[in-house]
Design goal:
345 residues; alpha/beta; 12 helices; 32% helix; globular
Length: 345
């Protein structure tokens, strides 16, 4: 059984302009000890998907489907049941540590509160554990700095505090939402290295939400590519980076500077902008920006899957994949490219 198994997840928001469909019929799973990266442009639905699973949607949001954590449906839990899991078995690191940390409370107050609530420790014991965790994420002079307020920390240090808070109760699953956003390149590398080391030491599962493909290549086992609320491609990190199947995935990869690319070669830019989620296009959501679009793209695209679980949502056949219709059946794809599969393996 997967640690987390999400099926048919839909997230909508009621606004004065109409209903915004942030996530549409999304399926994915996460195994124990696995790192799953979720990538895509801003507005793809990455963060709202996780907020729905954690029961943290805004008041005008609603979620449907199921999100089974060790067989228990998170979407059907009461607020009290979710509070017992959040921060304890499942922890989340949010995008902006300055707004996530309470500016009126010291770091000590915020960290010890988590431990005392979930582990029922006395304040002195909770403080000692908090100091030890700050040391683990390489906060210098942790014994003294734990008494300070968030504004007395740099951006990188605040992000380290958020990671420390997420790991206080030794969760099975850590959800990191853009953990290196707005940090300089050096600090980003330090945060990425820290997450990798903590994963190896604790053996926990990680869902990494990011637009930084360099980070994904460095630590992810599998990659899920989202566009306009849908998963358009999913597979191992090696497959996604070295043999992408969906035009959107190829566009994302081609837009990243690479050392092995000629200096006079222009970067590829995906034309246009993501669609308005209030008024999604008929057929494929990526059709208007795709340089491989055709007449068939005016219909909902088929899903292709292979025996490894890799998938692509596109009219273009996926190498080694079989077409899966909505009822779970369908014609096979073009003949499997055996040589290509052997090369990937």
């Amino acid at each position: 059984m997967a640690l987390l198994d999400v099926t048919g997840l839909e997230v909508e928001f009621e606004t004065p302009e109409g209903t915004v469909r942030a996530v549409s019929n999304l399926d994915f799973h996460l195994e124990e000890g696995e790192t799953l990266a979720i990538v895509g442009e801003s507005g793809a639905g990455k963060s709202q998907m996780m907020m729905a699973i954690m029961g943290l949607l805004a008041e005008n949001g609603r979620a449907r489907g199921s999100a089974l954590y060790r067989g228990a449906d998170l979407l059907g839990m009461t607020a009290r049941e979710l509070n017992a899991i959040r921060g304890n078995q499942i922890a989340m690191i949010f995008q902006d540590p300055m707004t996530s940390l309470n500016p009126y409370m010291t770091i000590e107050q915020q960290m010890t509160e988590v431990i005392m609530h979930h582990r029922k420790l006395k304040r002195d014991e909770a403080r000692a554990q908090a100091v030890e965790m700050l040391r683990a994420v390489r906060i210098p002079d942790a014994e003294e700095r734990i008494r300070q307020y968030p504004h007395e920390y740099s951006g990188g240090m605040r992000q380290r505090v958020m990671i420390a808070m997420g790991l206080l109760c030794e969760p099975e699953l850590l959800i990191a939402d853009e953990p290196s956003t707005a940090l300089d390149v050096t600090v980003q590398a330090q945060i990425t290295q820290l997450v990798r080391e903590l994963r190896e030491q604790a053996g926990m599962s990680i869902i990494l939400i990011t637009h930084d493909l360099a980070v994904v290549a460095d630590i992810a086992d599998r990659v899920m590519v989202m566009y306009a609320g849908e998963v358009v491609e999913c597979g191992s990190a090696e497959d996604i980076f070295y043999n992408p199947q969906h035009p959107y995935t190829r566009g994302l990869l081609d837009s990243v500077p690479r050392l092995d690319r000629a200096s006079d070669q222009d970067l590829h830019a995906i034309p246009g902008n993501p669609p308005n989620l209030l008024d999604l296009p008929v057929g494929c959501n990526f059709r208007d920006r795709c340089d491989e679009a055709r007449e068939e793209c005016r219909e909902p695209p088929p899903v292709w899957r292979d025996e490894t679980g890799r998938m692509s949502r596109c009219v273009l056949p996926m190498e080694g994949g079989k077409r899966v219709d909505p009822d779970g059946t369908g014609p096979e794809s073009r003949a499997t490219n055996s040589a290509s599969r052997e090369n990937r393996e």
